[in-house]
Amino acid sequence: MKYLLTFYLSFAALPLGVGAAETAPKPNLVLILMDDMGYGDIGPFNPKTANRTPKLDRMAKEGMKLTSFYAAPVCTPSRAQVLTGCYAKRVSLPSVLFPLAEVGLNADENTLAGLLKRQGYATMCIGKWHVGDQPEVLPTRRGFDRYFGIPYSNDMGGKPREPNGKSKPDRRPPLPLLRDDNVLETLAPADQDRITERYTDEAVKFLREHKDAPFFLYLPHTAVHVPLHPGAKFRGHSANGTYGDWVEEADGSTGRILDTLRALKLERNTLVIFTSDNGPWLTQGKNGGIAGPLRGGKGGTFEGGVREPTIAWWPGHIAPGSVCDAVAGNIDILPTFVKLAGGTVPTDRKIDGADLTPLLFGKTKESPREAHYYFSGNRLEAVRKGPWKLAIAPQNENLGKAKPAKPPAKTPFVPTLYNLDADIGETTDVAARHPEVVKSLQKLVAKMDADLGTVKQGTGVRPPGRVHKPQPLLLKK
């Protein structure tokens, strides 16, 4: 009895997540990915926001805020990074794909869903896919058992019917809503008003159907990308117009998912990560979000374009009310989830992400990666290590507030250094005061140049999937 008591007390003294994570069944994994949500759009990252987010506020109080969590500047690259654990340039998806794209995510890539399926997970994608819209590159061909959603952004589809009379025909293909590989219906603008509700209904159904075995749910929302389509229950209810309505509906959707996990008694065996694909589309004005204290927005590599409001929730494993300031990002989700599932990431090809479990379980405060690289398309624009961020090219705010003045012709860009701990808004260049830091970060840039290339394609770039004669996805008659 004495030895049993000693064992119990020593086990109880272990840090949160230690021991329990190693002896429990394989955890369920849920990734909620917002579209164009800003760092300042939700309460946990901006207590003064006009958007009411009580469900996310509670999620943060029960879990961990990751305050330096990075994505890509725009939609497609971010999704490619989530699914492969690689910088988008490595898998040749550095830019936004449009309907009838001739490329998509290569079948040779190890995807997050595919690797989890090997570990016995049921996998489902619900929402905006956006890494290829042809049948051969849809979710069910990239590791997901099931799919329900749209293949690209909600502003990219045409009207379901040809317009009449004097109006110009809309030459874009209709916006298709898919069930697995088949078009369930084509969405007129009014149909999108229920899209968040329908996604959430599907998610809740999936959770209930797979409560007895490990599952992976990937929920890349259409919200809050323009055009804005909050549901009837939320429209007109926020203090921040239509944009706030949709943020609040997304908060409610997240609440339904967490409440379902609690009702099914799965909360202590389910990791849920909430994040966004890129920063807010600031030029949309009242129809776009805000980046809070960060500079810039969607489309640029200033912090506002790529640093995302991120929460990790796993009661009993992640310390409640905790905050992680270490550098992490969506390239780290794949190796983290695969590790938790009991698998290993194949070594047949290089990935850029690293396992975040030591950070999530409070075992360390150090980033698992040597550095974070900020790509805009195929161009490397900056690198960060610790608090230091070195811009090696002009950082265009792009879809943010305004474009900075261009330097005179033939004038080389002078690298710009920011201390993000002291200057989160990237207002002051301190390169002249810290030449040794600049030199150290330039060595990291040279290292990446030898791999992916800072402008041109390096030897580490792999080809995308190719599509022969892409055709519109249409309802079958």
Explain how this protein is built.
This protein has 477 residues and is α/β, with parallel strands linked by helices. The protein folds into two domains: 18-161 and 169-360, Alkaline Phosphatase, subunit A, CATH 3.40.720.10; 372-449, Arylsulfatase, C-terminal domain (2-Layer Sandwich), CATH 3.30.1120.10. The chain has eleven helices and 17 strands. The chain has helices at 2-12, 20-23, 54-62, 75-84, 112-118, 195-209, 241-263, 303-306, 333-340, 357-360, 435-449; strands spanning 28-34, 64-70, 103-104, 122-126, 146-149, 176-179, 182-186, 215-220, 270-276, 307-313, 322-324, 328-329, 372-376, 379-385, 388-391, 416-419, 465-466. Strands 1, 2, 4, 5, 6, 7, 8, 9, 10, 11 and 12 form an eleven-stranded mixed sheet that branches. Strand 6 (176-179) and strand 7 form a beta hairpin. Helix 3 packs across helix 7 (241-263). The longest helix has 23 residues, at 241-263. The chain is globular and about 65 Å long. It starts with a helix and ends in an 11-residue tail after the last strand. The model is unreliable at 1-22 and 160-165 (pLDDT under 50).
- Uncertain runs: 1-22, 160-165
Stated plainly, the CATH topology of the largest domain is called: Alkaline Phosphatase, subunit A
User: First CA to last CA: what distance?
Assistant: 72 Å
Number of distinct beta strands? 17
